[in-house]
Amino acid sequence: MDRNIEISHVSKKYKNGVTALDDVSFTVGSGVFGLLGHNGAGKTTLMKALVTILTPSSGTIRVCGRDTAAQGAEVRKRIGYLPQELVMYPSLSVFDFVNYMAGTKGIRDKTKVHEALKAVEMEEYAKRKIGQLSGGMKRRVGIAQALIGEPQILVVDEPTAGLDPEERVRFRSVLSRYARGGRTVLLSTHIVEDVHQLCEELAVLRRGKLFYAGKADGLMQRVEGKVKLLCLEDERQLAGLDRKAVVLQTTYEKDGIRVRIMDDGGNFAGAKTVTATLEDAYVYCMGGKYYA
């Protein structure tokens, strides 16, 4: 497997004493790779270290064989980055903004700007002001600036958060298409459906530690046969259930309450075993629906 990204024993401790990452190690090859975790799990800190905005307290990160700490300039040439919050200038046109971002990378060829806008289906809006765009369109412009220079590694942090289903589908198509030909897209998100649709491999962070890294199917196998469906009559039966099992999902229906649980010990003999999903496995990793 091509190791486009190698993360080795990376820790990050801030001056206020908070440990955002604790001895995290995994590798990423070509294709779309998912990084899952709840808010505060350490995803954004890891992304910033990967793109050389932050320096790890210990450990190493290598991108295409280059050390992010010692060879930062070389790493940045190979990475496109869409942060969770990208500052845009509302008075600039779409073309002028992406062209400006291209200039910060030393790229002066305006045809590259047109190509990037075409890739995200924004070329027809090139003259429109940033301030006049919808949230989904702004996110597409964000991807366009990250694609400038056709980087080997594309790092995107929560790109579909807050978008409608149509825009999310569009984003998934853009990312999947870009990952062809040996390139890598690292998708950091808490939206399990995006990872399920795009990624064969993923890593899960929990409170700064690596919980799992590998095939998505491997994570689901951990919970296979343990996901059960309980049919309850009222809230009284529901009360205290989370102390006996990991509650994955609660659905209120006309004839009662249906609860998906993780039954590790076979403690619910009357419950029906159901097919596990990636979301079930993820919520289990996070410790239950209240923590995901």
Q: Can you walk through the features of this model?
A:
The chain has 292 residues and is an alpha/beta fold. It folds into 2 domains: 5-220, Rossmann fold (3-Layer(aba) Sandwich); 225-275, no CATH class. It is 30% helix and 29% strand. The chain has 10 helices and 14 strands. A hairpin with a 5-residue loop joins strand 1 (5-13) and strand 2. Helix 3 crosses helix 4 (110-119) and helix 4 crosses helix 5. The protein starts with a strand and ends in a 6-residue tail after the last helix.
Could you name the key traits of this structure?
2 domains; alpha/beta; Rossmann fold; four-stranded antiparallel sheet; 292 residues
What's the structural blueprint in terms of helices and strands?
Elements: E1 5-13, E2 19-28, E3 31-36, H1 43-50, E4 58-63, E5 66-67, H2 72-76, E6 79-82, H3 94-104, H4 110-119, H5 135-147, E7 153-157, H6 165-178, E8 184-189, H7 192-198, E9 201-206, E10 209-215, H8 216-221, E11 227-232, H9 235-238, E12 246-253, E13 256-262, E14 272-273, H10 278-286
Parallel strand pairs: 3-8, 3-9, 6-7, 7-8
Antiparallel strand pairs: 1-2, 1-4, 4-5, 9-10, 11-13, 11-14, 12-13
Helix pairs in contact: 3-4, 3-5, 4-5
Q: Give the C-level CATH assignment of the largest domain.
A: Alpha Beta
As a percent range, the share of strand residues is 25-35%
Tally the beta strands. 14
The Cα radius of gyration reads 21 Å
Strand order of the largest sheet: 6-7-8-3-9-10
Low-confidence spans? none
Number of helices: 10
- Report the CATH superfamily of the largest domain: P-loop containing nucleotide triphosphate hydrolases
Order of helices and strands: EEEHEEHEHHHEHEHEEHEHEEEH
Cα distance, first to last residue? 31 Å
Mean pLDDT: 89
Task: State the CATH architecture of the largest domain.
Answer: 3-Layer(aba) Sandwich
Within the CATH hierarchy, at the fold level, what is the topology of the largest domain? Rossmann fold
User: Given the helix and strand composition, which structural class is it?
Assistant: alpha/beta
Number of domains: 2
Biggest beta-sheet profile: 6 strands, mixed
